[in-house]
Amino acid sequence: MDDLKLGIVIAQIINFWILFFLFKHFLGAKIVKAIEERRKHLKASAEAEDIAEQKKQEAEKEAESILSSARKKASEIESYAEEMSKNNAAKALERAEKEADHIITSGRDQIEKERLDMVNVMKEKVVDLSLKLNSKLFSKEAANKDFMEKEFSQMTK
Questions:
Q1: Number of compact structural domains in the chain
Q2: Is residue 117 part of a domain?
Q3: Residue range 20-32, pLDDT digits in tens
Q4: Pick the residue with more confidence: 15 or 122?
Q5: What mean pLDDT, rounded, does the chain reach?
Q6: DSSP characters for the chain?
Q7: Which residue has the higher pLDDT, 54 or 3?
Q8: What is the extent of the structural domain holding 130?
């Protein structure tokens, strides 16, 4: 213990206490203040993080709500479009059927008209041919014409 001298130990203790009081007097309050500010900052940061997390969860809920609403609206629009498509198809089919019926009716009317025209033409030709034959065979043309017209009208009925 020769190396340890009591004077040096006391000097070291005094130096320690001088440094401790200087440090406490000049830097202690600043360090304590900085530590307190850091604690406040960390607390505020944690609170801000909690608030941000809550807002994030609220935004996710709102986004999900909007998304489900949009999906529902899209489904409604899709079903409305399908209904409109079916209605339009039914209307188009109905119009086509009416047009087809009209075409068939007008075709039948036209065929009937042409048939009547052909019957009249044939009647005239048969009467003319009969008159020519009768005029060669008989001398009274007017009597033969009346007879032929009556006979032909009875045949065509």
A1: 1
A2: yes
A3: 998 888 888 888 8
A4: 15
A5: 86
A6: --S--HHHHHHHHHHHHHHHHHIIIIIIHHHHHHHHHHHHHHHHHHHHHHHHHHHHHHHHHHHHHHHHHHHHHHHHHHHHHHHHHHHHHHHHHHHHHHHHHHHHHHHHHHHHHHHHHHHHHHHHHHHHHHHHHHHHH-S-HHHHHHHHHHHHHHHH-
A7: 54
A8: 7-156
